[in-house]
């Protein structure tokens, strides 16, 4: 086996060094699709974004498809999701400050 594709996410901890709740839900950002080389232990990041985007690209790569256009489209979708999530958090935050 020359390489394997892996979808992973780094662990995020809070100020007390506890794993943050909900960080590994599929609809969270920060997932990475890696190309891992077992013989050398090296890895190469192919894509970073949302879980479903990473798994979609992983499937395409396993089917030996060219992913350039698909990757560009998924990057645009990820950026849109990030903006939407950011706007949502700003609205919630401003409402909570008034409580």
Keywords:
99 residues, alpha+beta, 3 strands, 20% strand
Explain what this protein looks like in three dimensions.
It contains two helices and three strands. It has 99 residues and is an alpha+beta fold. The mean pLDDT is 86.
Q: Could you describe the largest sheet, including whether it forms a barrel?
A: 3 strands, antiparallel
Q: Strand-residue fraction?
A: 15-25%
Helix count, per DSSP? 2
- Which strand order do you get reading across the main beta sheet? 1-2-3
This entry's quaternary arrangement is: single chain
Distance separating the two termini: 57 Å
User: How many β-strands, per DSSP?
Assistant: 3
| Fraction of residues in helix | 40-55%
């Amino acid at each position: 086996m020359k390489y394997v594709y892996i979808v992973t996410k780094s662990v995020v901890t809070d100020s007390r060094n506890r794993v943050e709740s909900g960080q590994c839900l599929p609809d969270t950002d920060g997932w990475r699709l890696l190309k891992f080389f077992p013989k050398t232990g090296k890895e190469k990041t192919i894509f970073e974004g949302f879980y479903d985007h990473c798994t979609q690209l992983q499937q395409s790569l396993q089917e030996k498809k060219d992913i350039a256009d698909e990757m560009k489209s998924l990057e645009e979708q990820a950026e849109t999701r990030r903006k939407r999530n950011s706007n949502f958090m700003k609205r919630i935050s401003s409402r909570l400050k008034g409580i």
